[in-house]
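[Automated response] Your request has been received and processed.

Submitted sequence:
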Amino acid sequence: MANVTFYEKPGCGNNTKQKTLLLAAGHNLEAKSLLTETWTPETLRPFFGDLPVNLWFNPSAPKIKSGEVIPDNLSEEKALELMIADPLLIRRPLIYVDGIYRVGFDPEKIDAWIGLNPDNPVTEDLETCPRSHEEKPCSTVK
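Generated structure:
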């Protein structure tokens, strides 16, 4: 059992499913809003580890989908600046456990890290917004 700090977009269906999986595995969960947290480069950067900058971003964010923000063209500093100004750009969830920071919800990686319920294997994509193809996806709602 781990004490998990889980930064989410409140109301996100995938974040709700992810939290349910963590709770079912016996973890203690503290859910926080990714959108209202007061981020700084120092508090946000650790979640991304050694991932390339383009994997820090939520591909369903309106500014990404419109082409206004192109993650492949950004430095770390500029990426953090943009995400702090518009947290919808941040890939979800951000997870913190015992000094370790992670971004995204890859069930195999989460299971290897802190464990998930082996009796309830994950068979669906819990990172891609299922509404991302809609005209007004949920990522536009704050």
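Summary generated for your ticket: The longest helix spans residues 13-24. Residues 112 and 138 are 30 Å apart (CA to CA).
If you did not submit this request, please reply to this message.
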